[in-house]
Amino acid sequence: MKKQLFIFDLDGTLIDAYQAIWKALLYARSALGYPPVDFETAKRAVGYGDKNYILKFFRQDDVEQARTIYLEYHLKILNNNISLMPGARDILEKLKQNKRVIAVASNRPSRAGLCILENLGIKDFFSKTIFGDQVKQQKPDSEMISKIIEELGINPRFAVFIGDMTIDVATGRNAGVDTIAIPTGSSTLDELRESNPARLCNSLFDVIDLINSGVL
In a 10 Å sphere around its CB, with 0-12 CB exposed, 13-18 middle and 19+ buried, how is residue 60 labelled? Predict the structure, then answer.
């Protein structure tokens, strides 16, 4: 069954902003007198929204101040610390050529998310973008995916969600759409396999192959 709508997660799926995230976290922790954390620890915690991210690294009474410092510095350094994931532009161009509908569902705040899409020159590929501060319930709740499907008027059977984390697989399942998982972000290959996505691919290039072969 060919899919009409391709919904993408952002961090670890289409874009690599882990350096910007880590550097902003280090900056906020230093500003509030906390010791540094290593890159892999910072990366593994990504994906659950900025509020939950900050909660993992600061005491409760420092959370609000830390979040303000983190977000301001993150936005300041984004331009020089983000890049497209391998195959990202290729798959977006392929989908556009094939007249598929493309959307983004990310737990990121919309200000940062839209800034990233603009700065990387991919904003115009998307018919719809929904970010964490634009819904009542973030992923893994189904609200983002369901809202995109409803507003674009596409049957869930003809939609697919592509993400790099087990939370993305759970989100797709909750929304009743197939999910393709790729181990290019915060979840390991074994974690993704155990989450039982509809398909497990090694990279976006493998997803392109499925499109070219008519599977998707």
Answer: exposed
> Is the pTM for the entire model greater than 0.90?
yes
162 to 37, 39, 68, 88, 172: CA distances (angstroms): 29, 24, 30, 12, 9
CATH node for 18-80 = 1.10.150.240
The ranges assigned to domains in the chain are: 5-16+85-212, 18-80
pLDDT at residue 182 is higher than 90: yes
Instruction: Outline where 45-197 has alpha helix (H).
Output: 50-55, 63-77, 88-97, 110-119, 143-152, 166-175, 189-195
Instruction: Kindly report, residue by residue over 6-43, the tens digit of the pLDDT.
Output: 999 999 999 999 999 999 999 999 999 999 999 999 99
CATH code at 5-16+85-212? 3.40.50.1000
Q: Give burial (CB, 10 Å; 0-12/13-18/19+) of 11.
A: buried
